[in-house]
Amino acid sequence: MARIRDLVEAVRRRDGVEAAIVLGRDGLLVDGDTVSYLDGEQVAAHAPAVFAAADALGRAARAGHLQTAVLEYPGTIALITAMSEDALLVVLARPTTALPPLLAELRRLRQHLATLA
């Protein structure tokens, strides 16, 4: 059976992915793999607030609970995905990364990741 670490490493190996971080909804890092210049703990600390705000927007718009948020910055694409009631996955990628295959992989992994979190 795969572990959270195995899945984090699999996402991180995708072309253009610079970070894959599993965290609790409290912002504490569970596991992560990042390029050397990123601080996974800092990313993890800020992600829950962003996810909660986007989830609230979706509920206000009667769109349901948020599954994945995609945030675009000048040099980075950030994806925040709900793994379970207690855990999130943050993926940071270069803007040139092919997002449709990455999003499809995250959807496929969501079920499996939730059983491991």
Structure, explained:
Strands 2-1-5-4-3 form a five-stranded antiparallel sheet, with helices on both faces. It has a single domain, classed as Beta-Lactamase. The model has no long low-confidence stretch (mean pLDDT about 90). The longest helix has 21 residues, at about 40-60. The chain is globular. Helices cover about 40% and strands about 25% of the residues. It has helices at about 5-10, 40-60, 100-115, and strands at about 15-25, 30-35, 70, 75-80, 85-95. It is built from three helices and five strands; from the N terminus they run αββαβββα. With about 120 residues, the protein is α+β, with helices and mostly antiparallel strands.
List the helices and strands and how they pair.
Blueprint: H1 4-12, E1 17-24, E2 29-34, H2 40-60, E3 68-72, E4 77-82, E5 87-93, H3 99-116
Antiparallel strand pairs: 1-2, 1-5, 3-4, 4-5
